[in-house]
Amino acid sequence: MKIAVAGKGGVGKTLIASGIAWTLARAGRMTIAIDADPSSNLALALGIPQRDAETIVPVSEQDSWIKKKTGTKFPGVYNLNFSVADLVKDLSVPTPAGVHLLVMGTVKSMGSGCTCPANSLVRNLLRHLIVDRAEAVVLDMEAGIEHLGRGTAECVDIMIVVSDANRQSLEVGKTIARIALGAGIPRVQLVGNRIRDEAEKNLIISFAEEHGIPLLGLILYDPTVSSAGVAGEPVLSLEGTPALQSIEEITRTIAQLVDGKKTDRVGV
Ligand SMILES: Nc1ncnc2c1ncn2[C@@H]1O[C@H](COP(=O)(O)OP(=O)(O)OP(=O)(O)O)[C@@H](O)[C@H]1O
Ligand SMILES: [Mg+2]
Predict the structure, then answer these.
(1) Residues near 50 by Cβ (< 8 Å), separated by ≥ 6?
(2) Distance from residue 77's CA to the centre of ligand 2 (Å)
(3) Tens-digit pLDDT profile for residues 84-143
(4) Which domain holds residue 47?
């Protein structure tokens, strides 16, 4: 299955993407996490030390691999697809979380700050990547909505829109959900994160109802997660915390939604 995690900046996308990927890997799935956010650090969240993360060569600097796999000499005609095993063998790096990491990186033309080539690379990669039932791909997306217009994540089975109880985050989430549904993504669901009290919980529940976005789950504000974030600690340090338990539950629900049934191990 292919899962995209989107939302406004700072709402918890990387925490949730890394938590889902780790849960799936522990359940025995061959899991690839794609860091599609040029300013994110999914590597750190999956347990790679900062100094090693800095040495990862992003896919945007080895795009000849994807061109070789998908291109033909006829313009607009694409080649056969490739597999998760191909990516694991040729492009990804292993992480202490047992997840294979793919860092997309960015191609910036001087001054413009444009990240289009990396985005089209993500789209091309997802379109041609065959993922079987024992495998999973989790995409930690760039914040906001600008890149969505370019169809970055149209080839996923489910998009998770993360929001906290902040009105602006919810509005951005609503726009993302609308674009994702318009792009043909079959399931688009909301995850409410960093919830501090009943009022915040109720705000998210009623927002989801009002706008017809199914609510996949809620994650409470967790001080352990917050301090781990400040200290740059990986998701692995959060085992047993209420936040991670909620992410595990959310992962089980995703597996049920996408695969139609629960499978072995921890129920994922
Ligand atoms: N449930 C939670 N309880 C407490 N702190 C949280 C929770 N979820 C996320 N955080 C903290 O909020 C901060 C932002 O989280 P994260 O980096 O996952 O967000 P993001 O959406 O990926 O941000 P960006 O848009 O910058 O990539 C981190 O410091 C993280 O530890
Ligand atoms: Mg992030």
Answers:
(1) 44, 232
(2) 34
(3) 888 888 889 999 999 999 998 865 444 445 555 566 777 778 887 889 889 999 999 988
(4) 2-259
SS3 100: strand
The answer to whether position 79 is within a domain reads yes
Are 60 and 121 a contacting pair, CB within 8 Å? yes
The set of protein residues with a Cβ atom below 6 angstroms from ligand 1 is 7, 9-15, 37, 40, 143, 193-194, 219, 221-222, 225-226, 228-229, 243
**Rounded to whole angstroms, how far apart are CA atoms 114 and 106?**
8
97 and 131 in contact (C-beta within 8 Å)? no
Tell which one of 14, 163, 204, 233 to mutate to probe ligand 1, the residue whose CB is within 8 A of the most ligand atoms.
14
Between CA 228 and CA 232 the distance in angstroms is 6
pTM: 0.90
Evaluate whether residue 136 is within a structural domain. Answer: yes
Q: Is residue 110 part of a domain?
A: yes
